[in-house]
Specification:
With about 180 residues, this protein is an all-alpha fold. The protein has two domains: about 35 residues, no CATH class; about 140 residues, Ferritin, CATH 1.20.1260. The longest helix has 28 residues.
Length: about 180
């Protein structure tokens, strides 16, 4: 019983504490585990960062991947360029939300690791990364579409979900074919 109370208190602390760039709850994954919607600032940051990473990883896949990965990457670049543009059109500075201008350190690290991977080992890094990234994106968009506090972004998240779910299915098939 005592342990449950401590765990609950820690979870509440994570959720209610916020950092300058991103809340601790979203950064640590606590919000996702608990099914808590991200704040608008966190949603925008995570969605924009995800788009940037998908575009850059896709460019690497077009250089290093096999034919199937190149085809997948081409679609990721096109679709995530589109959603990135849509997000920029929905977010105004008057809402106090800013779109990041570059990747965060975690995403940059993933991209650097992918960049350093030899073509013959590329699939073993890229394919599982795509599955993981799209699972995270589906979770983020589902939670915001359900309980987000900005109506425009909430609608956009809901409308974008089918594409992200399709990307996840494609990534899972790509990874399955690798094995």
């Amino acid at each position: 019983m005592k342990r449950s109370i401590v765990v609950a208190a820690v979870a509440v602390a994570f959720i209610s504490t916020s950092a300058a760039a991103q809340s601790v709850g979203e950064k640590t994954g606590v919000n996702s585990v608990l099914g808590v919607a991200p704040s608008t600032a966190d949603f925008v940051k995570e969605a924009a960062t995800s788009d940037m990473l998908e575009i850059e990883a896709g460019k690497l896949a077009e250089q290093k991947g096999n034919a199937e990965e190149k085809k997948f990457a081409s679609q990721m670049i096109a679709d995530h360029t589109k959603t990135s543009s849509e997000l920029k059109g929905l977010v105004t500075s008057s809402e106090g939300v800013q779109i990041p201008s570059g990747l965060d350190s975690s995403s940059q690290s993933k991209l650097d690791k992918l960049r350093d991977t030899k073509p013959e080992n590329f699939a073993s890094q890229y394919n599982p990364m795509q599955v993981s990234a799209h699972k995270d994106a589906v979770s983020l968009f589902e939670r915001y579409a359900k309980s987000g506090d900005n109506p425009k972004l909430k609608d956009w998240a809901g409308n974008t979900l089918p594409t992200l779910r399709h990307h996840l299915e494609m990534a899972q098939a790509l990874d399955k074919n690798r094995k």
